[in-house]
Specification:
This protein is mainly beta and about 80 residues long. It is about 10% helix and about 55% strand. The chain has one domain.
Length: about 80
């Protein structure tokens, strides 16, 4: 299993009825071991990892974890690369 670093597209979410733009988000995690399975479903978990968001000083802080389906991964991530 390889560890992957991901750079995400900017996106907007709603928090307490206010729109909030998420910029510079990065993910670190791994693909599901079943992703090479030819019967892989779009609703299955494709990627699991940690979410990092830049703060006001430009340093990244961990904001939580994420599990993404294949569709969610490709909608959210602009590029990714193998870390090790």
């Amino acid at each position: 299993m390889m560890l992957v670093g991901c750079i995400c597209n900017d996106y907007t979410i709603e928090i307490d009825k206010k729109k909030c733009k998420i910029k510079g988000e990065k993910l670190v995690g791994s693909f599901s071991p079943s992703m090479t399975d030819t019967d892989f479903s779009e609703s299955d978990i494709y990627f699991t990892g940690a979410v990092f968001i830049p703060d006001e000083d430009g340093a990244y802080k961990m904001e939580g974890t994420v599990e993404l389906t294949k569709r969610e991964f490709y909608d959210r991530v602009s590029s990714y690369y193998e870390i090790f």
